[in-house]
Amino acid sequence: MPAETHSRGGDLDRFDVEAIVIDQLAEILGRDADELRPEVRLRDDLDADDFALLDAIDAIESELGERTIALRLDDDELADIVVVADLVDCVAARLGLGGRAAGAS
Fold it and tell me: How many CB atoms lie within 10 A of CB 6?
């Protein structure tokens, strides 16, 4: 699904980023998107490895297009991504959208 379908008025917000991250993770990990709540641990609960996370980052970059020029992550940052919300936070921060949304774990 193109990024534009996640956005309201053409501008992305943190909820749009979360939807894109979850959609891409679900596709790459072969999971139902409903399983990918913010507190779900990527490695421990979903058996994701760094290669799957890198694939997810690439898919998210493709989905977001030109807005993701600075989305590249290094190995140290990958180690810091533990739960789904961490990946959402990382992408949102790179897009200048700030921290977690209210109510997120």
Answer: 18
88 within 8 A of 14, measured Cβ to Cβ: yes
CATH of 3-94, picked from 3.40.50.2000, 3.20.20.140, 1.10.1200.10, 3.90.1570.10, is 1.10.1200.10
CA separation for the pair 58, 94 (Å, rounded): 14
- Global pTM value: 0.78
3-12: long-range pairs with CB below 8 Å, 24+: 3/63, 3/64, 3/65, 3/67, 12/64, 12/67, 12/95, 12/97
- Using DSSP, state whether 8 is helix, strand or coil: strand
Question: Which pLDDT belongs to residue 68?
Answer: 59
What's the pLDDT score for residue 27?
A: 96
Helix (H) or strand (E) holding 73: none
Distance CA 52, CA 59 (A): 10
Select the more confidently predicted residue: 92 or 74. Answer: 92
